[in-house]
Design goal:
Elements lengths: L3 H13 L4 E8 L9 H15 L3 H12 L3 E8 L2 H8 L4 H14 L3 E8 L8 H14 L3 E6 L1 E2 L3 E3 H17 L6 H4 L1 E5 L20 E7 L2 H9 L6 H30 L3 E5 L12 H7 L10 H17 L19 H9 L4 H7 L7 E7 L4 H17 L4 E8 L7 E3 L6 E3 L10 H5 L3 E2 L9
Parallel strand pairs: 1-2, 2-3, 3-4, 4-7, 8-9, 10-11
Antiparallel strand pairs: 1-8, 5-6, 6-14, 7-11, 12-13
Helix pairs in contact: 2-5, 3-10, 4-6, 6-7, 7-15, 9-10, 9-11, 10-12
Length: 452
């Protein structure tokens, strides 16, 4: 039976509390596009992507019109391109430009999968693709890239960590005239999920079906509004409110995924429960934490509040959908979250505090802007620290860090759109991590990886 109260409540969430579907992402396997000739392979890729996703944007717009649910992004993720490069050889930039051309033709917002999985070492094509990432992201508009440098089962590939520090800095340097946007389109992962619909880290894993539709929901504003109605409740009551709200948000994501799947004739993959903030006022994860009673995000108690939020979101979401996946939790991207931006500007929210928070949230150090003269070894060391948190806690962590070329701590960097803007945060790098990073090798997997 249709509940009129629930319908009106959902309309209120959409109209006044920033509720939306952040993305519908079509995952496309390119394994059948492998070829010994890179140009033939690129041709197969273009044909398969444009054929498979020809109605993706149209379907998203249909759902928006029919159900009144905003769908902010329509995206594509593909098989990690380094796997194709292993078969074809040649210049990996051919693949980058092919992906960009396909995305432009289809009208999608981003295409992810210019990626490599090197958690246990480099196989054919991996190193060549990784070294091409800065130029690929500088020369394309829609392509996003990710590299998985470790896992709880394998440990941390420190040779890859050392390499990625330089790659991140080069991405920023080659796009310095565009607010260093290249670095904002690159994610370095630990325990990367194969079905993540969010950019820049989305790729279509080898265990996925040929095609799949994955949905990423959003709704920090909805959660905050719900908590505002319980100003004096205890934390058990707060957790219950968040669970109930997450359930409602996820049901909407389930609906969108089901409809998109049926109209496109593509299997429904997962709903990613992550609360994805935006720079818009009222759409902030930091503001949820402040609604719980913190004067500002970053003060003592922030990590505990975030742990409560992350857990309650997952518990509410898994009751609403049988297919939950991706990252699923609470994002804390500094430049994309109005409350995080304010807290970082004030100096209360520091990189060190953010690192502590990543032990209990769903991703990691996301959209962190640092001084442009930050050493590549320092970037690598930050990646290593974040990877260690993910490895020991058997969770996904990631680093998306942007060295602001030519700028110093305290200045601002503006991206625009969903990427927002943010203060350049000071790093505790007066002493060097270079010798540690230069040792290379692998940090062995922790004891808890031996679960068989």
């Amino acid at each position: 039976m249709i509940n009129t109260k629930d319908i009106l409540e959902t309309i209120e969430m959409i109209d006044n509390e920033n509720l939306d579907i952040r993305t519908i992402t079509m995952g496309i396997s390119l394994m059948d596009c492998a070829d010994g000739d890179i140009d033939r392979s690129a041709g197969k890729i273009y044909e398969k992507i444009t054929r498979s996703a020809s109605k993706l944007v149209e379907t998203g717009e249909y759902i928006e019109r029919t159900y009144g649910i905003p769908i902010i992004n329509k995206r594509i993720s593909v098989t990690p391109v380094s796997m194709l490069l292993a078969a074809s050889g040649g210049d990996p930039l051919v693949y980058a430009h092919t992906l960009d051309k396909a995305a432009r033709e289809l009208g999608v917002n981003f295409i992810g999968g210019y990626s490599a999985l090197v958690h246990k070492g480099f196989s054919a094509g991996d190193r060549e693709l990784i070294l091409s990432i800065p130029q690929a992201l500088a020369e394309t508009e829609f392509v996003c890239s990710s590299v998985n440098i470790g896992s709880t089962k394998a440990g941390i590939n420190m040779d890859a960590v050392a390499l990625m520090g330089g790659v991140v800095c080069d991405c920023a340097r080659l796009t310095a005239d565009r607010s260093c946007i290249g670095a904002a389109k690159l994610v370095v992962f630990m325990n990367a999920p194969e079905d993540n619909p969010f950019m820049a880290g989305a790729f279509h894993g080898t265990g996925e079906p040929d095609l799949a539709i994955n949905v990423g929901v959003s709704g920090p504003g909805v959660v905050r509004a719900a908590l505002a109605k319980c100003p004096n409740g205890n934390l058990t009551e707060i957790a219950d409110i968040i669970k109930k709200t997450a359930f409602k948000i996820t049901r909407m994501g389930q609906l969108v995924g089901t409809v998109a799947s049926e109209r496109l004739g593509v299997p429904f993959g997962i709903v990613d429960l992550s609360l994805a903030p935006t720079p818009a006022v009222g759409d902030s994860v930091a503001h949820i934490l402040e609604e719980m009673g913190l004067e500002t995000c970053g003060v003592p108690g922030t990590t505990a509040a975030l742990a409560l939020l992350n857990d309650a979101v997952k518990k509410g979401g898994v009751m609403a959908s049988s297919h939950v996946g991706g990252l699923s939790g609470a994002f804390i991207p500094v430049s994309e979250d109005a409350g995080m931006i304010d807290a970082a500007r004030s100096g209360i929210l520091t990189v060190e505090k953010l690192e502590a928070m990543t032990a209990v949230c769903s991703v990691g150090l996301d959209m962190i802007i640092v001084p442009g003269d930050t050493a590549k070894e320092t970037v690598s060391a930050i990646i290593a620290d974040e990877a260690a948190i993910g490895m020991v806690n058997s969770k996904t962590t990631a680093v998306r860090i942007i060295p602001a070329i030519g700028r110093e701590a305290g200045e601002e960097l503006e991206f625009g759109g969903l990427l927002g803007s943010g203060p350049i945060m000071k790093l505790n790098d007066s002493k060097s991590s270079a010798k540690f990073i230069s040792r290379g090798g692998r940090i062995p997997a922790p004891l808890q990886s031996l679960k068989n």
